[in-house]
Amino acid sequence: MALPKQEIVLVDFHNTTVPVWRVVNDTVMGGISESTMTNGEQGGVVFSGTVSLKNFGGFCSVHLHNTAVHDLSLYDGISLRVKGDGKQYKLILKTDSELNGFSYQFPFVTKKDAWITVHAPFQEFIPRFRGAVLSDAPPLNPAEIKSFGIMISDKQEGQFHLAIESIKAYALQGQIGS
Q1: Which one of 60, 77, 94, 176 is at 20 to 30 Å from 10 when CA atoms are compared?
Q2: Three-state helix/strand/coil letters over 103-137
Q3: Chain mean position to CA 162
Q4: What was the pLDDT predicted at 17?
Q5: Which CATH architecture fits 6-171?
Q6: Secondary structure (3-state) at 52
Q7: Are 18 and 38 in contact (CB under 8 A)?
Q8: What is the rounded CA–CA span in Å between residue 109 and residue 87?
Q9: Prediction pTM value
Q10: Domain ranges across the chain
Q11: Which residues are CB-neighbours of 6 under 8 A, at least 6 positions away?
């Protein structure tokens, strides 16, 4: 992938408070997984916890629900600056305000104890509802993004730890504002 020509910060975890993030775990359907979002030691935040497959569970997530709509139609995708544990996570975007509505997901794998920048092109987000791919859903409309989230699932039982520094929108062409 070409390097981004322009970026805008959507969420700077050095300047946000953790309480605006909502934890949603498999306990909503009888599971026993646990997670938290806490302030990191050197800025940023840490999404961590334990995924359990007991009681048909198996996921932990955090979501930032905005009151404003982000029009990112001039951008090519979302970038995340993260340090993980080698596990796979999903970046989640929503274009509606429904708590139980479907979402658009982009999976990414972290490198254990190393900071990486993940680039998630808008056209690679997959519409899903409760883990199932939705073949009849419209493609992600980057002009109507209402929330951001991170999830760990896919039977990755055990402890997890993901430090997050920022969420940005990126453009490959550098044509924004010109």
Answers
A1: 60
A2: EEEEEEECCECCEEEEEEEHHHCEEEECCEECCCC
A3: 11
A4: 56
A5: Sandwich (2.60)
A6: coil
A7: yes
A8: 6
A9: 0.89
A10: 6-171
A11: 170, 171, 174, 176
